[in-house]
Amino acid sequence: MSSPNKTCGRVAATLLMTLAWSAGAADAPAPAATSTAVPDPALDAYAEPAQRVDIGKGRRLNLRCSGQGEPTVLLEAGFAADSMAWAKSQPLIAERNRVCAYDRAGVGYSDPGPLPRDLDADVADLHALIEAADLDTPLILIGHSYGSLVVRRFDERYPKLVEALVLVDPPVQNVGAFSASYAEREAEVAPKMLAMYRVCEQGAKDGRLSATPPAELKSCLRGPNPNYSERLNAAILGWRSKPAFWTGMISASERRAPLYSGPVPKSERHDGKPVIVLSADRPYSGAPPKDMEALLAAREQTHTALMATSRLAKRVTIENSTHDIPGGQPTAPAIAVFEAMQMRQRAKSGKD
């Protein structure tokens, strides 16, 4: 019989694989420690909140804005990721535009939100934040991975507030249509993921999620990132070791499967505005060959269908990129903003 620690390790490995390949978590694995790693002092800005905006009912969301220029750009990170996911892209966008990133409820320096945490809750929070922060609209919304679902749904709800959409490596949908066995294995992993999250939640409640957690909790937290200062690593540990973070993860994870189980709805429309899809050229590095074909086929269907939601659509494959385009190829979202502005201008002048 397997020991609990070995079982937890196997579940953790499967969890990370599932998040990266299927639903597409935004967090990239922490770089391996090396003797030459030097912390980037610019990242220390993320060791503390920026502007905690009161969105009502006693809740505040952390908003981080920079730059000047219209239209304003709003960055939506992937699942469980905070605004630091955009640390490399945001300064590039800020050279031309006002640009803001934020932490979703329970993540980073934002207060937790009421349960359940689902796509509609995230969209409602984003709307409340835009209004409370008095951001200039219409906005260019950029969503990475799960964040692309948030901005798509937001545009459907509040189309007058959106100038354009940039969808950064949107997660694969409808993979079960291409591989029933993959979908079955994914369904088997889901309850194990939730069980692991609940162990982490209890560890947080017990105050046992620390820089040196016990063996059964090591899968809950990554070790210190050598590219981050001691102060920043401590700040990240601080919010990831809070029970509210794990409670939100559990609630959101319980409601994720329906978002990905079917294809992009034929009723989804973003007509009249640019939709740019950025596709990574190496999205499933390390996936077994038996899964790769199904994942790529489902991904092609997903990204092609998203382009069909608007007559002003464009797809760009980003060379030498993994799923973490904002971290690995940070110029790509910045270029997409400029292209979206040009597409919008041509449409207004009747040239498209």
TrEMBL record:
<feature type="signal peptide">
    <location>
        <begin position="1"/>
        <end position="25"/>
    </location>
</feature>
<dbReference type="Pfam" id="PF00561">
    <property type="entry name" value="Abhydrolase_1"/>
</dbReference>
<keyword id="KW-0378">Hydrolase</keyword>
<feature type="domain" description="AB hydrolase-1">
    <location>
        <begin position="71"/>
        <end position="221"/>
    </location>
</feature>
<dbReference type="InterPro" id="IPR000073">
    <property type="entry name" value="AB_hydrolase_1"/>
</dbReference>
<dbReference type="GO" id="GO:0016787">
    <property type="term" value="F:hydrolase activity"/>
</dbReference>
<protein>
    <submittedName>
        <fullName>Alpha/beta hydrolase fold family protein</fullName>
    </submittedName>
</protein>
<dbReference type="InterPro" id="IPR029058">
    <property type="entry name" value="AB_hydrolase_fold"/>
</dbReference>
<keyword id="KW-0732">Signal</keyword>
